[in-house]
# Entry
Amino acid sequence: MENEDMKIVIVGHVDHGKSTLIGRLLFDTGSLPESKIDELKRTCEALGRELEFGFVMDSLEEERDQAITIDTAQTFFKTDKRDYVIIDAPGHKEFIKNMITGASLAQAAILLVDAKEGVQEQTKRHAYILSLLGMKQVIVAINKMDLVEYKQERFEEVKGDVEKFLESIDVKPEYVIPVSAKEGDNIAKKGENMSWWAEDTILQSLDSFIVEKREASTALRFPVQDVYHIDGKRIVAGRIESGKISVGDKVVLQPTNIEATVKTIEVFMDEDRKEAGAGESIGITTEEPIFADRGQVICTKEALPGIGNEVEANIFWMSKTPLEKGERITLKCATQEIACSVAEIRKKFDSSSLEQLEENAEQLKETEVGEVLIKTDKSIAFDSFNDIQETGRFVLERGMDTVAGGIID
Amino acid sequence: MTIIIGIDGLEYEYVKEFGCKDLMQKSFGKTNIEEYEEPRTIVLWSSFLAGQNLEEKIVAMGNEKMWDFALKPEETFFKHFESFKAVDVPGYNYGREQHVLEREMLKKFFAEEITVEEFDKPVFDYHRKLKEQFFEDLEKDYDLLFYYFNAADVLGHLSFGMKSKMKLIYQDMNDIAAKAAAKGEPMLILSDHGMKSVGRYGDHQEGYGFWSNSLGKDLGNPKITELAEFVANEMK
# Structure
C-alpha cells in the first residue's frame, strides 16, 4: 500500500455518467458512507429485496441534492494499492480554477464518453483543458456500453473518434476502456457483459499510474503567502512550489530583486529543520531584514523566473460575457494578484473544433481559446508552464468571478 | 371481487416521482380534504366509509378515545356487498394493539430511547405479515376485499425526507398493487392524506390525499366522502 494519495479528476460531457461512475467506484470499493447505506440495506432486507446499485445512486443523489457529498467536496475510495481522492469538477469552470490555482491538482484524469452519443462538444472542451494543463495520465472511459448492447464495434468506433481528436491536441490516453458504470462492467471488476474485453479495468489502470512526485531539483519557487512577527522574528511564510531551500542559501525576492540569506527554516513541531522541499508549507527568517510581501516569489539567483509587465499566454475564456481587448481584469498567479488587461488577442480558436476563428481579434467569447498578450500594471514573476507549472499557470478574474484560466508560453 | 387498498400517508408527488405505475393504475389524482381541520387518519377513513364528514363527531371523543371509534357495517358502503373482508381499517376494525405500539415507539424515538432501526423493525414485521395475508385473501372469493396498509405513513414519520428509503417502500406498495391488479378486478387505491418532509422526518400533508382506479374513470379532485358512492355504484 502506497502512503501517498492519488488525486484524480473525472471530466466529460455533463450527461455522460460522471455521478454514476463515482457512485460505482465508491460502491465497488466499499467506500460509501456507512449509516445511510446501512439503513437502505436494512430496508431492502425488511422488504425482501437485494440492495441494488440503483438504490445506492438514489441515496448519493439525495445527499448531493442536500449538498452533503458528491459534487461538493473531495470524495475518497481505496484500492489495495493506494487511496484515491476524486477532485470534484462539476463544470469546466471549477475544474480549470481548481487545477490552475493548485487548490486541487489532479495527477490523473478519466475522460468519460457516452458510447451511444459518442464524442460531444463538451467532451472536446474538457479534453482540450486536459491538454492545456499538460495532463499526462489519462484514461478514456467509453461509458454506457449497456446502451449499445456491449457491442465491440461501437466501442472501436467511438474509441477511434476520441483518439483522433486527442491526437490533434497532443493528449495520449494510456487506456481506452469500455465500461458500464451503471452495471459495474470494467470498473472494479470485469463483469460478464463484455467477454471480448481482456484488458484492464478502470481500477487496474488507475493503480498502474504513478503519483507524480514534485521534482526537488528544479528551480526554487517559494511564493510568499504572508509575513508574521512572532517572538521578535519576522517570518516569511508560504508553500514551496518547486525546488528546495536550505539554511544559508542566498535567495532573491522577485520581482523586487532584493537579496538575503536564509537564517532559519520554521516548520511547525520541527525546530531543527535545515532544509525544505516542494509541496511543504514553511516559514523562513533571513539574516538581513527584508520587506517581503504577499505575492512576491523567493527564488535563487541561479534560476530566476521571468520578470516583467508582459506575458504571452494561452487562455481559455469561461464567462458568458466576452473578454474585450483592453478590459481591466485581475491576474492571479501563485500568490501574486495584479491588475492587468489583455492588450492583444493574437489568435482565437474554437476549443471544441480547434478551428482558428480569427487573428487580431477584439473579443474572446465563452469557451474560446486565445493566444494573447497580457500587460500587467506591475512587474510579475512567472515561468513557462512547461518549465514550472505552479508559476506557469494563472487565472483571470473579473470582479469576484473567475473568467479564464491560462498557461504561460 | 372489488378490491380496495387503503394506504395511509401515500403522497401523490412521490407516487409520480418514483414512477409507481401500479399505484397510479389507469386513472389517478388527488382527493380534496381541505374541509377537515386536520388530516387525522381515523377521521378521514371513517368519513370515507360512511360517505359523510365525521370529523366533529370523532374529534369530540378526545384524542385517546377517538381511536376506538368504529362504524357498523350498515353505516358504511360495506352494506352494498354481500360478502366482504376488511382488514385493519381505521373507523371499522382498526388493529389497536399494533398501532398503540407504533405510537409508543415514535415517542421513544424522539425521547432518544430507541434508534430508527429499532423503530422500523416492528413496522416492517407487521407490514410483511399483512402483505402475506392480503395475497392469500386475493385468492379467496369475496365481493369486496379492503386492506389498509400504514407502513408508508408510520415509517414516513421518521424517514419521509430520506427519499431513497421511501422509494423502496413505495416500490413495495407498488408491487402489492401490481399483484392485486393481476386479478383483473375493479380496484380502488386510496390514501387519507399525503406527507411532506421536515428534514429527514415527515408530517401529514394537509389539503389532499391520493386516489387511483383500475376503471380509468377520471374522478377529478373528489372529496373523500364522495368515493363511498363511487365504490358502491361503479366498482361492484
Observations:
- The first helix of chain A runs from residue 18 to 28.
- Residues 67-73 of chain A have pLDDT under 50 and may be disordered.
